[in-house]
Amino acid sequence: EAAASEAQSRYKFEELTAGNDETHHVAEGYDAQVLLRWGDPVLADAPDFDVMNQTAAAQLTQFGYNNDYVGFVPLNEAGTRGLLCVNHEYTNEEVMFPGLGRQDKAGFEGMTAELIDIEMAAHGGTVVEIAQDDAGKWAVVQDGKMNRRVTPLNTAMMLSGPAAGHKRMKTNDDPAGMNVIGTINNCAGGMTPWGTWLMAEENFHGYFWTDVLDADGKPDLSAHDDAVQKKRYGVPGRWYAWGKFHDRYNIDKEPNMPNKFGWVVEVDPMDPTSTPIKHTALGRFRHEGAETTVSTDGKLVVYMGDDNRFDYQYKYVSNGSVSEDRAANAGLLSDGTLYVARFDEDGSVTWMPLVHGTGPLTAENGFNDQGDVLIDTRLAADLLGATPMDRPEDAQPRGDGTAYIMLTNNNKRKETNAANPRSKSDFGHIIEIKEDGADHAATRGTWSILVKCGDPSISEVGAQWNPETSENGWFGSPDNCAMDADGRLWVSTDQGSKWGKTGKSDGLYAVETEGTARGTSKLFFRCPVGGEMCGPYFTDDGETLFLAVQHPGTDGTKDLKGFERASTFEDPATRWPDFDPKMPPRPSVVVVTKKGGGKIAV
Ligand code: FEO
Ligand code: CA
Ligand code: CA
Ligand code: CA
After folding, report:
1. Cα gap 286→277, rounded to integer Å
2. 402 closest CA partner among 373, 366, 445
3. ipTM of the complex as predicted
4. Residue 104 gets which letter from DSSP?
5. Distance, CA 583 to ligand 4 centroid (Å)?
6. Domain ranges (residues) in the chain
7. In this structure, are residues 407 and 431 in contact, taking their beta carbons and an 8 Å threshold?
8. Counting CB atoms within 10 angstroms of each CB, which of 13, 170, 230, 343 has the fewest?
9. Alpha helices by DSSP H, 9-150
10. 397-445 pLDDT, tens per residue?
11. Whose CA is closest to 156, among 131, 138, 173?
């Protein structure tokens, strides 16, 4: 019987044994090569990485920290040369810098102005040319003409769309409200059909600082006339001490600056001198990702989650159509409609437009124009009655009108709804949407739950998998996801510090959506301890898979059996991938290919 069902799963590989140790593992018959590590040279003039003598100037030329989204733009017909586009979401000071020890979130007391500039230079993104040799091995082309670092330290960006130039975007360095320096906390993302790269700004609130605190030591926003909006977004989070040294991250000095973050940023990887654009038409929230597709009549559609407990699922539909003429697509992300999802008990999903002047989105309710609707997307969506979700992470459309929504977990949920059916959901679930008429621009569709995650052998967990899923194949906390060349779904996990609850490291899973094997999952790749699985990205021929191992050696290394220490630079839980006693763990991009070549999992 097992053999018969195996034949129905379209993913052909021998699944890994689940577990958790100091290194990575890939399914038998595949090579997993470390391609790019934090600190590796990216620009032609980059110095070799010197972990004991880091500088911001060097980091600005080297690969950044905590690689998350990975995209690829082929530069030749065969796809053996191309540009890798990688987000660097955040930094882990305790394992980046010697002598800091374990820092508590608020302020990182040991952080100096110099260390902060280094970590700012380690944020943002990287564009780097890579090439595959005749033996199938990928390598970085260090003198690639398009190689580029994008950072919050010094990359100038433009604002576009209805909120550009809005009075709430005006800051001391930009009285017109049209520009901003830098991008932060770029989590997942996407590539557009015309080959530009979308970087989603996620937990931007954590970077803003204030010295004005109330009696409990919490931010006191009473001097801010937009205190309600700031609170709804968690601004200022005071996770990082940047605002102590850079006024633009200090809301006491620049109260409007948080309004310039929380957007989707478009970068043209083909032009290293191009100015990245923050597209306000796609809304302001904790953008997890921005995966694109095209509707039946040629409109660009972008699916986007707001990763916060009880926040919402969004999509954007352009007014114009995607053109073969690359330059003609420049306006598609500035002119369109943003929708938020309501998932009803009857299995229907309704996409509600966030348009000023319609329904409750009026001046009476604090929305004076479309700029207000977009800057305060969350408040607008609250008024429309969107469905509060279990932390919407990545969302992946497929060209046939289907989309998959990763709901990672929500341990604060008490009241359930049909689309978020578990109270205190520790392990999350995946929703499948089928848009009406197989059209991604449709404003209605149907939804169903593909899987409820967690261990199916523990009844209290309430998991729901196809029973053919093995004890190695189930997972918790879906986060990033991707389609391969054959339209098959792959899901990567981020259990955070909770991986001890499953005993499994984070990893990459092949999740079947079709046929009798629908709802099965198979483990393909395992992260080293404390690492989160990001990427994934398949090349168009399905023969190369890019994965990103984020923050190896950190999450859950405190108080968990087997790794009973909080990782520090001096004493990390793993030194992956170098295993050099002088080198801390390094977030790295891993490239997976089949031994002897050919499509992955076929
Ligand atoms: Fe950066 Fe929502 O994961
Ligand atoms: Ca994520
Ligand atoms: Ca993705
Ligand atoms: Ca996550």
Report:
1. 17
2. 445
3. 0.94
4. P
5. 26
6. 155-168+181-211+258-452
7. yes
8. 170
9. 56-59, 93-96, 113-122
10. 999 999 999 999 999 999 999 999 999 999 999 999 999 999 999 999 9
11. 173
